[in-house]
User: Which sequence fits this backbone?
């Protein structure tokens, strides 16, 4: 027996406005030209200051917003009042940036922000989960049905969807891509494999129908399948060939990438989605994504109207929000946060819980907050999204050793006692014990401040190793690292995308390779519990267990105030840094 749960048509959605007011500070920026690669002699690169054609107004009527909660076997759609939307304009080129060159074309393989900036806009997803707008809608799936027991999903695909080379996209491609994202093809541990852990089977029913069965009824399977790493790649083209010519079905098409300068994407004129008013998506004619490693240059580029939207995973506006508001009237700010901290690798000496706990206790989180973020973030967080629905409150966290400023001296004393015992048993000394801490350049300041606070408290030395994303992935694969300063940047405010994704046995994001069957069983219970109150209780239990295990020592919540110029409209805001629709840019438009 099949019970129809919902039929989803693509919709535009009311935007959730998030305004973050931070302390004003910093010197006045100098208008700095964006980087130009002088070594390119065979082509004339377009100037950043070249004006683009003004977008053409497209008359539309007010649109309806219909946010739909993640469905379960007993959930029905909720009727939401209609909300008026502004008149959409089509055309124009959105200018944004990334902090380093594109190096990874396989978005299922690893989390990499340049890949999200350049590859995600040309991709498609079976469903789209736009959390900033409270909408779960169809991507390649036009509609779906869920069985009465909540374990079988039948997805009906849009017809006549084509890959950018003209080949029809069918259920065969969806099955291939989802199996690959679940670690059942050539990838042993895809980045978001944990999000598909509940999937049992996936099969093609016909060219436009895909059936998925799950191991158990789950509260979050639909939003999880729309996470940023579960995109649909073609079956007929090896992904290793993508650097030559990326072929997918998304709203934009690949034009070119000039290292150290920019990536250029153009509108897909044959994209299969339209908005509620029948306007063809995407609204934009194209995207220019500049390579700007320096945050001061990025700040100046935004102030001087050389970019329209700042990078979602960088912090050029930290502590300068009021200054930006003064210099760019009607600027639009929103914020997304993630936990950053020290991840331990599951090998000696880190298998000794004493040394892990000693580092957990000795991190001076308030000092890191003050030094790096001018006191604008919170030192009170564990593993779920800070300030999110599932996070423990500040008062609850302050009760834990290592988090209460009033008991910091006692915590440091305990940390040193643990280290004394460890060094006595291991026959090492503090002088000779110098672990290497791996990090990306984007987290270098936080990593340094965190480890310096540990050094002050414990006299432990360390070496900081700043690497590229491919180098980090290689070290994770080979197991050639000690500590990794890394962020927990989930794509969903839910334990299935935070605690589960980073600490379940075999997860593609479980870089430390920790494993505990009893903890995995608790994660299964969280995922299969449909009552939200009970899920909340179980989730808190899991967080406290992780705190005791100390596989990961959280440092602070990393705030990322992101700015859009006044003319940027539509779905440009994200609730979380890996919120896929925010990177796709499908429903962004320019009011010029």
Assistant:
């Amino acid at each position: 027996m099949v019970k129809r749960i919902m039929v989803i048509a693509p919709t535009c959605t009311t935007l959730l406005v998030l305004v973050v007011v931070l302390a004003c500070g910093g010197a006045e920026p100098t208008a700095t030209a964006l980087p130009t690669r002088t070594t390119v002699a065979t082509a004339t690169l377009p100037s950043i200051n070249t004006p683009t054609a003004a977008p053409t107004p497209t008359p539309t009527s007010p649109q309806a917003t219909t946010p739909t909660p993640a469905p379960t076997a007993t959930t029905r759609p909720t009727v939401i009042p209609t909300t008026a939307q502004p008149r959409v304009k089509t055309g124009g080129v959105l200018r944004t940036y990334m902090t380093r060159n594109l190096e990874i074309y396989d978005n299922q393989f690893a989390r990499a922000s340049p890949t999200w900036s350049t590859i995600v806009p040309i991709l498609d997803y079976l469903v789209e989960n736009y959390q900033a707008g409270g909408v779960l809608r169809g991507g390649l799936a036009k509609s779906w049905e869920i069985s009465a027991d909540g374990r079988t999903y039948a997805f009906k695909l849009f017809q006549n969807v084509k890959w950018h080379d003209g080949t029809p996209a069918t259920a065969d491609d969806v099955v291939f891509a989802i199996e690959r994202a679940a670690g059942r093809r050539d990838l042993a541990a895809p980045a978001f494999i944990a999000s598909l852990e509940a999937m049992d089977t996936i099969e093609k029913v016909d060219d436009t129908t895909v059936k998925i069965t799950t191991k158990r009824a789950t509260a979050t399977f639909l939003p999880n399948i729309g996470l940023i790493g579960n995109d649909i790649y073609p079956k007929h083209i090896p992904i290793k060939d993508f650097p030559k010519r990326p072929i997918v079905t998304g709203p934009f098409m690949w034009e070119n990438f000039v290292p150290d300068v920019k990536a250029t994407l153009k509108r897909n004129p044959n994209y299969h989605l339209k908005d509620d008013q029948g306007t063809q998506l995407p609204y934009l004619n194209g995207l220019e994504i500049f390579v700007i490693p320096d945050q001061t240059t990025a700040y100046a580029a935004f102030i001087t109207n050389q970019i329209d939207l700042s990078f979602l995973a960088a912090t050029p506006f930290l502590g300068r929000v009021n200054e930006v508001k003064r210099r760019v009237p009607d600027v639009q700010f929103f914020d997304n946060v993630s936990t950053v901290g020290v991840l331990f690798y599951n090998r000696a000496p880190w298998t000794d819980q004493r040394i892990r706990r000693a580092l957990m206790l000795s991190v001076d989180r308030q000092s890191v907050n003050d030094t790096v973020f001018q006191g604008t973030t919170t030192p009170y967080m564990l593993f779920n999204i800070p300030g999110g629905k599932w996070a423990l409150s500040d008062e609850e966290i302050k009760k834990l050793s290592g988090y209460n400023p009033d008991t910091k001296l006692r915590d440091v004393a305990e940390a040193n006692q643990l280290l004394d015992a460890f060094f006595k048993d291991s026959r090492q000394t503090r002088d000779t014990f110098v672990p290497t801490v791996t990090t990306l350049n984007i987290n270098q300041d936080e990593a340094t401040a965190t480890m310096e606070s540990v050094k002050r408290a414990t006299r432990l030395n360390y070496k900081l190793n700043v690497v590229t994303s491919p180098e980090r992935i290689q070290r994770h694969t080979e197991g050639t690292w000690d500590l990794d300063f890394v962020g927990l940047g989930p794509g969903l405010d839910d334990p299935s995308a935070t605690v589960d994704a980073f600490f379940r046995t075999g997860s593609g994001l479980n870089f430390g390779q920790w494993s505990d069957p009893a903890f995995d069983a608790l994660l299964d219970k969280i995922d299969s519990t449909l009552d939200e109150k009970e899920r909340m209780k179980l989730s808190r239990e899991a967080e406290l267990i992780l705190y005791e295990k100390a596989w990961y020592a959280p440092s602070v919540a990393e705030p990322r105030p992101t700015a859009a110029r006044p003319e940027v409209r539509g779905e440009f805001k994200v609730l979380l840094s890996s919120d896929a629709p925010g990177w796709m840019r499908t429903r962004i438009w320019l009011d010029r």
Remarks:
- Residues 1-83 have pLDDT under 50 and may be disordered.
- Residues 408-426 form the longest helix (19 residues).
- The two ends are 52 Å apart (CA to CA).
- The CA atoms of residues 397 and 403 lie 7 Å apart.
